[in-house]
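The following block was generated as part of the benchmark described in Methods. Ligand: adenosine monophosphate.
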Amino acid sequence: MEKFVTIERAIEIARQTTPQINVESIPIEECFHRILAEDLPSKVDDPAFDNSAMDGWAVRSEDTTRIEVGQTSAGDKAGRIGPGEAIRIMTGAPIPEGADAIVMVEDGLQGEARPHFIRRQGENLRRGEVALSKGQLMTPAAISLAATMGYNTLPVRTKLRVAVISTGDELVQPGAELNPGEIYESNSYGLCALLEKIGCEPILHDIVQDSLDGLRETLNGCDCDLIITSGGVSMGERDFVRKLMEEEGHLHFWKVAMRPGGPPLFGTWKGTPLFGLPGNPVSSHLVFQLIVAPWIAPEINLFKSVQVRMLDSVKGAPNKVCFRRIEISNENGQLVARTNTHQGSGNIHSIVAHNGLTILPPNTDAKVGEHIEALWFNQ
Ligand code: AMP
Ligand code: MG
């Protein structure tokens, strides 16, 4: 077991245990948020034939005057024109033989002939070209592109079945009456959504009280490929996830040099991989994005790495990389960052109210005007 490791080392240690993922072929309309399992070569040229990008006339650019000799729409076969002739053409219709330019309908038949309004065969994609690679997250645009390339089913990774378990005596389901000392359980809902976003099937479990026996029973009852717990991994008396994993599981790492999110752990419980995330809502969310997601799907980038100029000062952390929440925006062509809310690891609003994170190296603050490395959420 390694203690207090870097994020990179944490991922490396966890990757020594590999996720149980296979490949399945499913209809394209079910592929949202799934991960492509193979490179996808286009089955066709896109466009498949030269066609018009505009409503207007297909013409010969050398002609100075023209007469209209016919009409063509999307779905028609390509016609033909001779000298001085034009064919009225709709967007998407094939370019008639002999034509080399389009006159826009707005300009009238004798208007300017514009060659660039012909969309050329294969100008977007050539047949055989791999436009979607293995590991691609199937976003709405990626799904549209796969259809454009001629696919109606796609080879995707099977959904990892992930048990999501919150631990804590203070936790109550949202909507219920709160007694003194109780709070709403929120981590598991965010974690389930994060899991769905990267092609997994979350299995939401009931809240587990802080008891060794209750936790053991729940873990033993899990039927899944991965267990994710939140809470109970610090040094406290009642941090039973850590205790149970230490005493009865196999612990591979505990504690990562990051703030927020210090005490996560990884190991196996009776052969099933298990990430124990910290209970603080910001910590569990960020540890998932920075460590769990790269373990599940290394190719997916939930963040873009950027350099930003700080408009507010932010404090770093002793011996830990510090991820302050920041709002990144473009000011006169330069990325700048400010902070809008309280930065506590209990404040999940700080993630919603910002769109990025600082990467402050251990023992470094950032002053106003300084340029620093940052992560920009890809939504
Ligand atoms: P723990 O890691 O169990 O020490 O919890 C750290 C903090 O996170 C405490 O303030 C807990 O009340 C809070 N917390 C733990 N689990 C959750 C949860 N599932 N939803 C919201 N807050 C939680
Ligand atoms: Mg707790």
